[in-house]
């Protein structure tokens, strides 16, 4: 390791797993009775900032934000730049929609985390941690069963794979009330802006693409006063833990998540 370059050593430090105490868990979906929830791990913006400070110093990185119109709502692009050994700045960009609570602050925080993960590898390994179905309480709002990180997602030398007993929620992202369902009874995503029904325009979008004209969004809110939309169904599925059946076009939960929800010995 003594022959490693500054860039190689820095990459190792950036991509290193976080201590379990810094890992937060987000509820992505719930069973109908709200007894179990599908959770995934993440780190908040403060953990990202601490790592950047530790590696580059407080004056060795900077973040600039630009508001844009995203999928049916406003979003932010974060341009995260770090100071290299030769004195040049290396910029990386990614973005995120505003969130349900403290929308501007939440959108900025999520954009920073995504830019850090996509551009610098900070916390990117957490995307590979499978979702876990755990026991919920408080009408489906509280995680009662402790999620566990796999061994490969732990810092070297960590003996206890479980995070702290208390699982904190990120105030930048977590809504103050339980979010509504993501899909309507017809299997079409609900509007990300108002939560209402949406019109399925996927076939018209494909026709637009074949004609070489500007493609309309995949889904548009039926409430013309709202104007909410979802541009790409593939991106929506990726962000919310769903798959799209290649033959029927139906939007369904990921099979791996369904399998994980089954109790040992439970069949189809």
What does this structure look like?
The chain is of the alpha+beta class. It has a four-stranded antiparallel sheet. A three-stranded antiparallel sheet has the order 3-4-5. It has helices at residues 6-15, 45-56, 103-120, 202-211, 233-240, 255-261, and strands spanning 24-30, 36-42, 61-69, 74-83, 89-97, 132-137, 142-143, 198-200, 219-221, 229-230, 242-244, 251-253. The protein folds into two domains: 1-171, Enolase-like, domain 1, CATH 3.30.390.80; 180-268, no CATH class.
Question: What are the SSEs and their pairings?
Answer:
Blueprint: H1 6-15, E1 24-30, E2 36-42, H2 45-56, E3 61-69, E4 74-83, E5 89-97, H3 103-120, E6 132-137, E7 142-143, E8 198-200, H4 202-211, E9 219-221, E10 229-230, H5 233-240, E11 242-244, E12 251-253, H6 255-261
Antiparallel strand pairs: 1-2, 2-6, 3-4, 4-5, 6-7, 8-9, 9-10, 11-12
Characterize this entry briefly:
The chain is α+β, with helices and mostly antiparallel strands. Helices cover 24% and strands 24% of the residues.
By CATH, the architecture of the largest domain is named: 2-Layer Sandwich
Number of strands: 12
- Could you say which structural class the secondary elements and strand pairing correspond to? alpha+beta
**Rg over C-alpha atoms, rounded to the nearest angstrom:** 20 Å
Gap from first CA to last CA: 50 Å
Question: CATH homologous superfamily of the largest domain, by name?
Answer: DNA repair protein Rad52/59/22
CATH class of the largest domain: Alpha Beta
Give the integer mean of the pLDDT values.
Answer: 79
Give the overall shape, derived from the CA principal axes: globular
Widest β-sheet, arrangement of strands: 1-2-6-7
CATH level-3 fold name of the largest domain:
Enolase-like, domain 1
- Stretches where pLDDT is under 50 for at least 5 consecutive residues are 164-180, 256-268
How many helical stretches?
6
Q: What percentage of the residues does DSSP assign to strands (E)?
A: 15-25%
- Helical residues, percent: 10-25%
Number of domains: 2
Reading the helices and strands in chain order gives HEEHEEEHEEEHEEHEEH
Q: What's the main sheet like? A: 4 strands, antiparallel
Oligomer: single chain
């Amino acid at each position: 390791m003594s022959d490693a370059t500054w860039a190689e050593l820095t990459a190792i430090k950036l991509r290193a797993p976080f201590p379990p105490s810094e890992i937060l868990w987000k509820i992505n979906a719930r069973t109908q009775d709200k007894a179990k929830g599908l959770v995934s791990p993440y780190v908040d913006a403060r953990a990202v900032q601490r790592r950047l400070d530790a590696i580059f110093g407080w004056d060795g990185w900077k973040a600039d934000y630009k508001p844009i119109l995203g999928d049916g709502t406003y979003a932010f692009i974060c341009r995260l730049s770090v100071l290299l050994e030769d004195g040049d700045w290396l910029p990386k960009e990614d973005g995120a929609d505003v969130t349900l609570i403290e929308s501007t602050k939440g959108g900025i925080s999520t954009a920073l985390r995504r830019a850090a993960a996509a551009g610098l590898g900070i916390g990117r390994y957490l995307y590979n941690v499978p979702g876990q179905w755990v026991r919920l309480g408080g009408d489906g709002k509280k995680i009662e069963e402790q999620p566990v990180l796999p061994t490969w997602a732990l810092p070297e030398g960590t003996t206890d794979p479980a995070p702290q007993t208390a699982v904190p929620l990120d105030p930048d992202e977590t809504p103050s009330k339980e979010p509504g369902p993501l899909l309507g009874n017809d299997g079409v995503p609900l509007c990300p802006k108002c939560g209402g029904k949406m019109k399925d325009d996927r076939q018209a979008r494909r026709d637009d693409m074949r004609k070489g004209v500007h493609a309309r969004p995949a889904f548009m809110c039926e409430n013309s006063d709202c104007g909410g939309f979802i541009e790409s169904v593939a991106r929506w599925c990726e962000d919310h833990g769903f798959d799209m059946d290649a033959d029927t076009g139906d939007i369904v939960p990921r099979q791996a998540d369904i399998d994980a929800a089954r109790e040992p010995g439970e069949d189809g």
